[in-house]
């Protein structure tokens, strides 16, 4: 080979090296993460999800790509899910949102779905059974619906003279709202409470619900479990303190920012468990063989500073059973 031809050959091969290396670089699996709310409102939950991923050996940008999709409401995200299905995402993750999990389940029977739901996923059709899900979906049941009666009882224990309780729910979160109202109506008469149902699914409607209290003021407020409501927790706290209305919520995030009290499962831990299951699926585990986990940690949290602002003296009996008291 002539020297000129040899140099040209070597130069051509060298120029191709980066392109060949790029072509051979493995593509990271893509996980679609869908949540109602905003990144800021869910920052702690996302951190918990990432912690669970890391416990399973996955770190974003290193061996997995997570696409975060933040939705304003509960409209079924057909276009979003269809795009994830078309691109053959490695998994679709929907923590804390039953309607969206059902929408994803209807859109694909092959791509793994990891959910977090406050309702029993078996009658919802998400899985065949808790022990053997049997399809492409599995996840965590965090018992939001089952705790409704307990929340009402705690509210009554705090305000034993209360008679009228406003129950605020999100009508667009159909299944969760239906379950909440059924349980409220079953539990309220047994403890002598009269229920006033209010609906809100937007920021303006939350404001309007509180404005209605000027005409018909309740003794206390029960805020139904809902991820949109959780994303608006600062708004709820501001309005309840302004109107001096004692309220109970479904998770501690409300109380941390100034809400009066909450009773529910550890939602951050649910996100962590969803992250762990996502890692298991990425390793090749089939959702059909991953039993639905059930939350076992429950938290009763009271904010004493807020109680003082509302001129409420918290009974010592409630303080003694609280898992956390915020001073």
Short note summarizing the structure:
The protein has a 7-stranded mixed sheet, with helices on both faces. Strands 2-1-3-4-5-11 form a 6-stranded parallel sheet, with helices on both faces. The protein is an alpha/beta fold.
Structure description:
By secondary structure, the protein is of the alpha/beta class. It has two domains: 30-142 and 267-298, 3-Layer(aba) Sandwich (Rossmann fold), CATH 3.40.50.2300; 145-265 and 299-326, Response regulator (Rossmann fold). It is 43% helix and 20% strand. The chain is built from 14 helices and 13 strands. The strands form two sheets. It has a seven-stranded mixed beta sheet with strand order 7-6-8-9-10-12-13, sandwiched between helices. Strands 2-1-3-4-5-11 form a six-stranded parallel beta sheet, sandwiched between helices. Helix 2 (43-55) crosses helix 12 (267-282) and helix 8 (203-211) runs parallel beside helix 10. Residues 1-25 have low confidence and may be disordered.
């Amino acid at each position: 080979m002539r020297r000129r031809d040899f140099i040209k050959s070597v130069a051509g091969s060298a120029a191709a090296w980066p392109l060949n290396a790029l072509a051979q670089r493995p593509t990271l699996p893509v996980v679609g993460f869908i949540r109602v709310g905003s990144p800021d409102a869910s920052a702690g939950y996302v951190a918990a999800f990432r912690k669970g991923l890391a416990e399973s050996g996955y770190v974003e940008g290193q061996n997995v790509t997570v696409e975060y999709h933040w939705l304003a409401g509960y409209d079924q995200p057909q276009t979003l899910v269809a795009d994830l299905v078309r691109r053959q995402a490695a998994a679709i993750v929907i923590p804390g949102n039953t309607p969206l999990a059902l929408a994803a389940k209807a859109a694909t029977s092959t791509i793994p779905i990891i959910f977090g739901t406050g309702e029993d996923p078996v009658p919802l059709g998400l899985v065949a059974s808790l022990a053997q899900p049997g399809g492409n979906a599995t996840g965590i049941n965090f018992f939001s619906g089952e705790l409704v009666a307990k929340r009402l009882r705690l509210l009554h224990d705090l305000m034993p003279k209360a008679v009228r309780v406003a129950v605020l729910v999100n009508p667009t979160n159909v299944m969760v709202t239906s379950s909440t109202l059924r349980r409220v109506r079953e539990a309220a008469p047994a403890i002598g409470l009269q229920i006033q149902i209010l609906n809100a699914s937007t920021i303006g409607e939350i404001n309007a619900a509180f404005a209605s209290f000027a005409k018909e003021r309740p003794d206390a407020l029960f805020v139904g479990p809902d991820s949109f409501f959780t994303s608006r927790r600062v708004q709820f706290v501001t309005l309840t303190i302004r109107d001096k209305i004692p309220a109970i919520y479904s998770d501690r995030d409300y109380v941390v920012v100034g809400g009066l009290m909450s009773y529910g499962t550890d939602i951050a831990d649910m996100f962590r468990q969803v992250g762990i299951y996502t890692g298991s699926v990425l390793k090749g585990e089939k959702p059909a063989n991953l039993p639905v986990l059930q939350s076992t940690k429950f938290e009763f949290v009271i904010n004493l500073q807020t109680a003082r602002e509302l001129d409420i003296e918290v009974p010592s009996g409630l303080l003694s059973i609280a898992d956390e008291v915020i001073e």
